[in-house]
Structures are given as C-alpha cells and as structure tokens.
Amino acid sequence: MKPAGFDYARPDRLDEALAVLAEHTHTARVLAGGQSLGAMLNMRLVTPKVLIDISALAELGHIQADDGMIEVGAAVTQDQLLRWPGLKEQPLLAQTLPWVGHYQTRQRGTVCGSLAHGDPSSELPLVLAMLKGAVVLASQRGSRTLTAADFQTGTMQTAMRDDEMIVAARFPLAAPGCSSAFREIGPRRGDFAIVAAAAVGDQDGVSLGIGGVADTPAIRRLPWLDGAGLDDALNTIAWELRGSSDGHASAAYRRTQVRNLGRQVIGETQHALFNR
Amino acid sequence: MRYLTADAKHPVRFILNDQPVEGNAEPRLLLTDFLRREIGLTGTHVGCEHGVCGACTVRIDGASTRACLVYAVQAEGRSVETVERLAVNGDLNDLQRAFRRHHALQCGFCTPGILMSLSQLIDEEPTADEARVREVLSGHICRCTGYHGIIAAALDVLAERQAGRHV
Ligand code: FES
Ligand code: FES
User: So what's the ipTM on this one?
Assistant: First the structure.
C-alpha cells in the first residue's frame, strides 16, 4: 500500500530536528533508514503528520570507541557498523550483525532505528541487553542515557518520550577473557527470528540471552553446567519465558528452540574458552 | 532545513542512470512510483510494497535498496541506478546474458531487483563465493526458479570477471 500523507522535514542540524519534534510532539516520527518504519507507514499502521529524516545528519554519523564503549550515532547503518574495522573489539556484535535483516536492508537500516523499533525478535536489542549497553536520548529538554533494560519496556514499546529521539547507542567492549556466540532460527536467513540466542561466557559462568520469545530480551546467568544439569536449566528457562503460539511457530516449537539454540551457543562459548 | 508540506508536490532532482532527471512529488510518493509513473521507467517492479520481496531493488549511491521503502524526495541529489542501466546500447550485459544462459528467470517479476543486488555484489566483492551469493539473494523472493539458475549465473559472472574476461 501507499503511506498516508505527511510533511517531510530534513533538518541540517540536530537542534533543528529536536525543535520539529518538540513542535509536533505527538504527531511526528523520526525516520532514519526506514526499513521498519517505512513498512509500517506503507501499511498505514502509523500515520504521522510529520516525518523527520535524520539519515543525513552529520552529527549522528559517528562510530567511535572510547571509555570502553563503542558509540554508534543514530544515522549509522547496520552495514557501516559491520564494515567498521574496530568491530572486532566487540565479537558478539560482530557475530550478530550479519543476521540483522538482509544485505539490502542493512545498507539503509540503522543500528539505533532497530533499537527504537523494539521488535522482540530483532537481534540488536538482544545484543544491547546482553552487553548491558545503553541508548542516549535527546530532546529540547536535554539528554539522558538509559540502560537497555530500562529502555525497552515491551513489544515495540520503549521508555522514549514523544519529544525524544535516540541520538546514539553504546555497546560496551568485550571484557578480556570472554567468549561469545550467536545463533537464530527463522523462516529464511534475514527474516525475523523465531528464536534468537546469544551467549557470553567467562571463567565463572555464562550469560544466555534469548530473543523472539518473551516481549523483551531475556537474559539469564548460569554457572557452567553439562549434560542433564544444562538440560534442566535450559528447560526451566524455556518454560519461564512463556512464549506464545503465532503464525510463525507454536509455543512448543519456541521452547524446543530455546533448548536447542541455548545449548548450541553455550557449547560454542564453552569450547572457545576452555578447549583452545 | 528542508520542510516539504504533505499537500503539495515538490520538485525532485537526481541522477538516474547517469542522466539528470526531475519531476514533482508529494512527500509520501514512493521512489518506485516516481520511477514508474513520473519518469516512465517500468523496469523497477513492485511486489509486496512493504520491504519483503526485493522486487523493487535499485541502487542508490551504489547501495542496493528497496525503492518501496524510500520516498522520492529522499532521492534528491543522489545517484539512482535501475535495471535499465545494465544493458549497454541495447546489448544485455554479462550478468543479464548469464541469466539467460542459466535459465535464471521465468516470469521475470523478481529479476530486475535481483540483477541490481547482484550487480553491487559483483562490483564490490569479486571474490564472493556461493555462500555469499546465497546470503545476498536471501533479500529477494523468486516464486518461479528455485534460485539455482540465479546462483549459477552469478557464480559464472564472478568467475568470468576474475579470469579477466569481463565484457
Ligand atoms: S516491492 Fe519493495 S520489497 Fe517488495
Ligand atoms: S522468475 Fe518469476 S518470480 Fe522469479
């Protein structure tokens, strides 16, 4: 379908973008890559009066590593981050980005846009939550930084206020002596994940993150377990997340995949750490 | 700041297949509709119109992009390439000829979009392997061919170009 009519604003500076957002607080949407928002507009699931296109704002085009963080500006595409040489300092992000959308959508879709969209099956919110990262929000009232856990509140729901926009996301660099893994299962590579699983392990244990099942990324810390102990732990998590049935998969299939993918990513992480 | 109102048509100028073009567009006009209706180039196809099928793929400043998720006004000042750019003086280019040789199309609905994605891949990653070709193709849906011919055509062109037989 075609989108309903909207005014199109293309600010040259961030303060102009925030001014338009303040003026049209409840009726404006921020457009970055448009790979999620564009589809919603075409289907008229959203009908904003004003679209504020931030894709060319130079102030939001940075990727930089300092203070133990990779900071990614809101205009940076998933593909730009994927090709950024410093990405190897954060292996989980490097492992996950190739699974975000498709070759074609990654070249336009932004990292922060995916976080703002807050789809429970999407990969970047899961990685941000796993790494205990944060988003930086700005409005004319000022700026604030929210942790991933405080930012995403539900299915496509975030703590962002109507006059705020994401200006950057911050992914902590990997701690020394960690290893990580990512896997997902979906109808086709690049489609929405039915279940996504990420693991980050160290000498003491492993954090498992599951996307696509609960309405926000679910993170659990486990000691290193084997055999029946690991089976039991994964089974408990699979039931705790209360995944539901939908057009893509049944609740039982989701539980099975939490167990399967969970075992795989934990196994890969463990192997990388201890069997080298 | 540019501010374009919903209720008016606004001039849009960009480079299309190496030639400057201009037309008028309301902000909500999709690039697909601008190309097909304002300009009259109907090689860019429209399947799902919400970013899933890849039929509408064009290259914007070199990047394969779903034109149904871009507004015409966003093309202002950019360089856009469509499938019409591929043939040289009416002769199919090497990728198009390989598609014909390998039966990489049947109805042809998906073909323009796939050609544009594969053009970028072949231009930028001459050493791409079959796994990479498949990954790039995952952004497209073809209901006819089962993809094997498309993969064979892409690999054939990659091999030819690597052997320096690029015509
Ligand atoms: S028509 Fe654009 S992706 Fe299907
Ligand atoms: S050739 Fe018919 S859809 Fe691909």
Answer: 0.95
Tell which residue, A84, A70, A79, has the closest CA to residue A114: A79
The reported pLDDT for the residue numbered A189 is 79
d(CA A129, CA B111) in angstroms, rounded, equals 39
User: Is the Cβ pair B49, A189 closer than 8 Å?
Assistant: no
Q: What is the pLDDT of residues A216-272, one digit of tens each?
A: 999 999 999 989 999 999 999 999 999 889 888 999 999 999 999 999 999 999 999
Based on the number of CB atoms within 10 Å of its own CB, is A78 exposed (0-12), middle (13-18) or buried (19 or more)? buried
Pocket probe mutation, ligand 2, options B105, B118, B147, max atoms within 8 Å of Cβ: B105
Handedness of CA A93, A98, A101, A104 (dihedral sign): positive
* Cα–Cα distance for residue pair A222/B120, rounded to 1 Å: 44
How far is C-alpha B30 from the chain's CA centre?
Answer: 15
Q: Which of B57, B61, B74, B140 to mutate to test the interface with A (most CBs of A within 10 A)?
A: B74
Domains located in chain B, CATH noted: 10-85 (3.10.20.30), 94-162 (1.10.150.120)
User: What is the pLDDT, as a whole number, of residue A170?
Assistant: 98
